[in-house]
């Protein structure tokens, strides 16, 4: 992972990229609604999926959505807060997750193969945990900017749509702290769920340690986020500049979108929520991002599985639309 070279502060270039994000082309009209309306009598054969497909086509400047080269990208890092109150070797545990994703029995790889989608795990220094945010800032500004820049490399795969998943050890804890810093509320609300007692304690300790320090979203990312969440932010930024639609897989990837939404609400217009996960606060977060999930299957893993399932439904719907003729 290389560091960014900036003349000013490391975040200056990031802010400029966010400020200068491209918007939808004026006057562009896709063929999605026209194809869907061919049956007449107000019938819509793919229901609310029409809106999702139309959004894809708009961002791609294409009459019909292109879903031929999807990428399922999973970002993995090691959060120092994961070691709080635990004797586990967090580096080994984090790297074991990566091995499981790349070599083990995981559903997302099988779904990706069936879809003809590329599947790639991006490691964000799993051997170098971020700092425990209950003791200090998770990253320096330079480290955070470098992770954002590394995440931007996801667009180099040449995908026409990207599913963003997360498998970082401690990432859900970091995401909960970020959301409290952005929106307020209690740790039980943002970090709750079965078996979440230690996570709630860690989030409370972190919020108390940094209370009142900043309201700047990039600083909140730096303090609580870790390299993988910073990388997700970079991926969303780069995809917007390349006009590549993004499907957010779960709570952590949606939290990365929340950082950008807090800076510039329109910055996440190219993003869709692929599904509603089993994470208790995910629904509340989607509401704040004004996103409706495509699926609600109670998938409780953030490794891209829910995103891949949503993509499979959208590909089938797109194929159905193209079969309709004038």
Automatic annotation (TrEMBL):
<comment type="similarity">
    <text>Belongs to the CobT family.</text>
</comment>
<dbReference type="InterPro" id="IPR003200">
    <property type="entry name" value="Nict_dMeBzImd_PRibTrfase"/>
</dbReference>
<protein>
    <recommendedName>
        <fullName>Nicotinate-nucleotide--dimethylbenzimidazole phosphoribosyltransferase</fullName>
        <ecNumber>2.4.2.21</ecNumber>
    </recommendedName>
</protein>
<dbReference type="GO" id="GO:0008939">
    <property type="term" value="F:nicotinate-nucleotide-dimethylbenzimidazole phosphoribosyltransferase activity"/>
</dbReference>
<keyword id="KW-0328">Glycosyltransferase</keyword>
<dbReference type="InterPro" id="IPR023195">
    <property type="entry name" value="Nict_dMeBzImd_PRibTrfase_N"/>
</dbReference>
<dbReference type="InterPro" id="IPR036087">
    <property type="entry name" value="Nict_dMeBzImd_PRibTrfase_sf"/>
</dbReference>
<keyword id="KW-0169">Cobalamin biosynthesis</keyword>
<dbReference type="GO" id="GO:0009236">
    <property type="term" value="P:cobalamin biosynthetic process"/>
</dbReference>
<keyword id="KW-0808">Transferase</keyword>
<dbReference type="Pfam" id="PF02277">
    <property type="entry name" value="DBI_PRT"/>
</dbReference>
<comment type="pathway">
    <text>Nucleoside biosynthesis; alpha-ribazole biosynthesis; alpha-ribazole from 5,6-dimethylbenzimidazole: step 1/2.</text>
</comment>
């Amino acid at each position: 992972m290389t560091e960014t070279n900036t003349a000013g502060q490391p975040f200056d270039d990031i802010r400029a990229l966010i400020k200068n994000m491209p918007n939808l082309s004026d006057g562009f009209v896709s063929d999605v609604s026209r194809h869907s309306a061919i049956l007449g009598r107000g019938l819509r054969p793919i229901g609310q999926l029409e809106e999702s497909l139309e959004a894809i086509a708009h961002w791609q400047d294409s009459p019909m959505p292109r879903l031929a080269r999807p990428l399922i990208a999973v970002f993995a890092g090691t959060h120092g807060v994961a070691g709080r109150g635990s004797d586990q070797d967090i580096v080994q545990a984090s790297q074991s997750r990566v091995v499981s994703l790349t070599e083990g029995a995981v559903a997302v790889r099988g779904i990706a193969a069936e879809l003809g989608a590329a599947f790639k795990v991006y490691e964000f220094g799993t051997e170098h945990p971020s700092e425990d945010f209950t003791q200090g800032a998770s990253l320096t500004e330079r480290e955070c900017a470098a992770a954002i820049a590394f995440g931007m490399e996801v667009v180099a795969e040449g995908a026409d749509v990207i599913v963003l998943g997360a498998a970082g050890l401690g990432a859900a804890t970091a995401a909960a702290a970020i959301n409290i810093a952005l929106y307020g509320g209690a740790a039980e609300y943002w970090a709750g769920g079965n078996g979440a007692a230690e996570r709630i304690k860690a989030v409370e300790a972190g919020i108390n340690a940094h209370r009142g320090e900043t309201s700047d979203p990039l600083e909140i990312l730096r303090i609580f986020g870790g390299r993988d969440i910073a990388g997700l932010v970079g991926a969303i930024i780069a995809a917007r500049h390349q006009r590549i639609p993004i499907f957010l897989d779960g709570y952590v990837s949606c939290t990365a979108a929340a950082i950008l939404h807090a800076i510039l609400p329109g910055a996440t217009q190219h993003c869709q929520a692929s599904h509603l996960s089993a994470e208790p606060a995910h629904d509340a977060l989607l509401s704040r991002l004004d996103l409706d999930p495509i699926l609600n299957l109670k998938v409780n893993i953030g490794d891209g599985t829910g995103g891949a399932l949503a993509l499979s439904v959208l590909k089938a719907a797109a194929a159905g639309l193209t079969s309709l003729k004038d």
